[in-house]
Design brief:
The complex is a heterodimer of chains A (about 200) and B (about 290). By secondary structure, chain A is mainly alpha-helical. Chain A contains seven helices and two strands. Chain A has a single domain (about 10-195), classed as Arp2/3 complex 21 kDa subunit ARPC3 (Orthogonal Bundle), CATH 1.10.1760. A two-stranded antiparallel ribbon of chain A has the order 1-2. The longest helix of chain A has about 30 residues, at about 160-190. Chain A starts with 9 loop residues before the first helix and ends in an 11-residue tail after the last helix. With about 290 residues, chain B is an all-alpha fold. Chain B folds into three domains: about 1-35, no CATH class; about 45-160 and about 260-285, no CATH class; about 175-255, no CATH class. Chain B has helices at about 45-50, 55-70, 75-90, 95-120, 135-155, 165-170, 175-205, 215-245, 260-285; strands at about 125, 130-135. The longest helix of chain B is centred in the C-terminal third of the chain and has 31 residues, at about 215-245. In chain B, about 40% of the residues are buried. Classes of the chains: A mainly alpha (about 200), B mainly alpha (about 290). The interface between A and B is large, with 72 and 85 residues.
């Protein structure tokens, strides 16, 4: 879901960077010295998850798990995703410096929204798988919509590539939904305090 | 599969030892080594490898802003030339750089295929069945040049430093302390967590797990990644306790003193001058 550098127009880049900066400041306010370490290790765990390629038909897609990151970290997922994207840019040159803000917003904003919408449904075992699946599905859906919007706002001629982005991400949404549901179920059984579940069952 | 060496040193590369031992044959405990597999370009001794990370961060920021926003093809081409020059100065493996460029250009290829067909505009060329839009083709070509220039700039200026040095540079440039700590810690444990994931996946493969497009694959990956997350959570708690025990107060005291040398100032000056030149080229009436 990365947009590469040199594609977007100045207004989109600037507004993306401003939103990302605001989100990061909000997220950093919720981090104290004690919660930095878990956040940092979770963000490297998610970086590792993004290296996992799940086969689909003849090809493969890589996981994002931004929905799960939102569910576990809340607003702190903004700096965590920013760090992850910076590391990806340094290691693999996906994305770049100027596009970092836009890419952060397209991935972190849906994650935060998922946290507000579905976080409370994780407490009850009955609604947990459904809520986790929807969070995983919706975060990718909204991320690809935001990416498409960023492309379309940059230049009207980008409408066709923007539609391609959304269409290409439909299988990713389903896979993310299932995997998020399984991960949440596993964590709820093994170590519920990661998700800060109220009724640990 | 765990080998004895691991109990001494957490790093992945020490197994292939001599290169990573000091003169006395002792293993070097260098946290940076654990993520060596990801940092392809940071090892080297060129002028750019040794330059101060602050200078490189500032010049990379300014230059990539100009690359991203320029609209004229001559500015973009001049930028690409500058990036090629910097890549040559960094003396990297051309094969590795080319592999990166191929990967990055997959999105550009999509644009090059789609935009001439869908962009429209006044100038079109009739080609068998389709109306190919010249302005779409021009835009896609401009984007390809710009993004390649940006990627080469990123490789030659930033990927030639380890993330540890970059984090130090960002800290010196007064970025929020917590953000820098987040970056440095996740960088530090990335290699270990990746190794943990690989170990679990190897265990799954030994039990005849073959990934496919089915629910069993998603359940297995879900539980596997869940285990990775649980382990990183517990590792975080242990590291946190160890750091508090050693009096960590939120600031790293580095043994590596950062001081600006004359060559760093010259590099930044030269690159900023080049940026100004590109800006003039962009703003000059065609």
């Amino acid at each position: 879901m990365h947009i590469s550098e040199g594609v977007l127009s100045a207004p989109v880049l600037i507004s993306g960077s401003a939103l990302a900066a605001a989100g990061t400041v909000l997220g950093l306010r919720r981090l104290d010295l004690e919660s930095i370490m878990p956040t940092a290790l979770l963000s490297s765990a998610f970086f590792v998850a993004s290296l996992v390629h799940v086969p689909i038909g003849p090809g493969s897609v890589h996981l994002v798990l931004s929905g799960l990151l939102g569910l576990t970290l809340g607003w702190a997922c903004f700096p965590a995703i920013l760090v992850g994207l910076f590391l990806q840019a340094v290691f693999f040159q996906f994305g770049g410096l100027t596009i970092l803000g836009v890419n952060t917003v397209t991935m972190a904003a849906p994650a935060v929204l998922c946290c507000y919408l579905f976080r409370r449904w994780l407490d009850k075992p009955g609604t947990r798988p459904g809520a986790a699946f929807t969070a995983g599905f919706l975060s990718i859906l909204l991320s690809s919509l935001l990416t498409a919007l960023a492309l379309a706002f940059s230049d009207e001629g980008f409408l066709a590539p923007a539609q391609t982005v959304i269409a290409a991400n439909v299988p990713v949404m389903v896979i993310e939904g299932f995997i998020t549901a399984f991960i949440v179920g596993f964590i709820a059984k093994v170590q519920p305090e990661i998700l800060q579940l109220r009724s640990a069952s | 599969m765990r080998r004895g060496i691991h109990s001494v040193c957490p790093c992945a590369s020490c197994r292939y030892a001599p290169a990573h031992t000091d003169g006395m044959g002792r293993r070097i405990r260098d946290p940076a080594r654990a993520v060596m597999t990801f940092e392809q370009f940071s090892a080297g001794s060129s002028f750019l490898h040794q330059a101060d990370p602050r200078c490189k961060l500032i010049s990379a920021g300014v230059l990539s802003l100009i690359f991203a926003l320029c609209q004229h093809s001559c500015t973009a081409l001049a930028g690409l030339l500058l990036s090629l020059l910097l890549t040559a100065v960094a003396r990297l493996h051309w094969a590795a750089v080319l592999r990166r460029l191929l990967l990055v250009n997959s999105f550009n290829l999509l644009l090059l295929l789609l935009l001439p067909l869908t962009y429209g505009g006044a100038e079109t060329v009739r080609c068998i069945w389709f109306d190919l839009s010249l302005s779409g083709l021009r835009l896609a070509a401009l984007i390809t040049v710009k993004s390649n220039a940006a990627v080469l700039l990123f490789i030659s200026l930033l990927s030639t430093s380890t993330v540890a040095r970059l984090g130090q540079g960002l800290q010196a440039l007064r970025l929020p302390q917590n953000l820098c700590l987040l970056l440095l810690f996740s960088y530090r444990y990335l290699g270990l967590i990746h190794e943990e994931f690989l170990r679990l996946r190897r265990a799954a493969a030994l039990r005849c797990f073959l990934p496919g497009t089915n629910l069993h694959t998603y359940r297995t990956y879900g539980h596997l990644l869940g285990m990775v997350i649980v382990r990183s959570w517990n590792r975080a708690a242990r590291v946190q306790q160890a750091m508090v025990l050693r009096g960590f107060s939120g600031a790293f005291r580095s043994l590596h003193v950062m001081e600006l040398r004359r060559s760093d100032a010259l590099l930044t000056g030269g690159l900023l001058l080049a940026a100004a030149g590109l800006l003039l080229l962009e703003l000059a009436p065609a």
